[in-house]
Every structure is written in C-alpha cells, then in structure tokens.
Inverse folding.
C-alpha cells in the first residue's frame, strides 16, 4: 500500500472584484487564466462581446488558496472621467510622471483616499477605477501575474483604510480615454 500525496492547493475562499453582487453563476462564462491560450487582446475582446449580459464573463485565477474572480469592464461606451482612472501596465503606473509598479500600494492608496484633493486622482473611493493596460500579445499567465499583484495590493489597502471600497478593473489594450491636455510649450525667442 503506497502513500498518496496531493500537490493540489485547497481553495479556502473565493473573492470577487468588484463584488459578488454582479456575478451570475448560472450564466457565467469563465475564462480561467490558469490554462487559457488566449492573449490579452483576445480576452479583452471577449469581454466586449458579453457587455449586454454584464456579469456573465468572469476572469478567474487562483492566488495560493484563494480563488479570485474578476468581473472586468471594457470601454464600451458610457462616460468615464479620466481623472477617476489609475492606469497600470505590467511594470508601470501611468499617472503623474509615472512610477514603477513597485510603488503600486502607495499610489493605489492615494487614488482611493484622494477625495478630489489632487485633481488628476479619483474624486472619491466609489468612483475610483483601475485600468489594466498590457501589451496585446501578453499571455493569460502574464495577465494573471499582473492581477495577482493588483488584487493583493488592493486587499491590503482595503484592510488599512477600513472603508467600503471596491476594486473595479477595466481591461484596455489601447488608450480610449484621451490623456489630459498638456500645457503649450514656451516659444523660443532666439
């Protein structure tokens, strides 16, 4: 008689982003990042096709013993104020003059707690959005890594600020929201 050892991780909790109220389990189409062959562009395009039945498409991945389910948004119309978005890539945060992704906790916390103090950060915690913008050819595994980092950071912030906040994630593979206007360059009077 041999000893059977299982390497399977035991899932002890399921977390939903932004929350489980939007999730429709009986109708859900789940993209499991663990074994998906789709790239980021293909995943983002799938979301757009499910927009009429919002909440049906779920991006799912395991983070140690936590199953995480994201109901992602895409820019399919509607009015989103640019200032309420915090755009991140695999290695950068695209706000101010830019930050390394290692600064995510500090910048994400500023985004959620800003309350209109800094004009280009979120107006309120309820309006705060995070836009994940990665290269179109990035794999589901690379997306999973970015989402693990984002959700872990968010979970820490949620505990620290002890407020009812939600992590609303948009997927975007090209900028659809125009950047804020830049001041004109000074004229060179030579």
């Amino acid at each position: 008689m041999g000893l059977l050892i299982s390497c399977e991780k035991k899932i002890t909790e399921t977390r939903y982003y932004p929350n489980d109220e939007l999730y429709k389990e009986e109708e859900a189409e789940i993209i499991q990042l663990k074994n998906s062959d789709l790239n980021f562009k293909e995943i983002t395009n799938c979301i757009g096709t499910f927009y009429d039945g919002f909440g049906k498409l779920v991006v799912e991945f395991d983070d140690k013993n936590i199953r995480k389910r994201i109901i992602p948004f895409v820019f399919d119309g509607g009015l989103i104020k640019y200032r309420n978005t915090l755009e991140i890539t695999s290695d950068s945060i695209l706000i101010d003059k830019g930050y390394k992704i290692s600064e995510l906790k500090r910048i994400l916390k500023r985004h959620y707690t800003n309350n209109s103090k800094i004009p280009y950060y979120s107006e309120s915690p309820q309006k705060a959005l995070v836009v994940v913008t990665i290269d179109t050819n990035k794999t589901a595994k690379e997306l999973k890594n970015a989402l693990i980092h984002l959700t872990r950071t968010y979970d820490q912030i949620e505990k620290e600020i002890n407020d009812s906040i939600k992590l609303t994630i948009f997927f975007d593979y090209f900028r659809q929201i125009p950047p804020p206007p830049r001041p004109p360059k000074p004229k060179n009077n030579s």
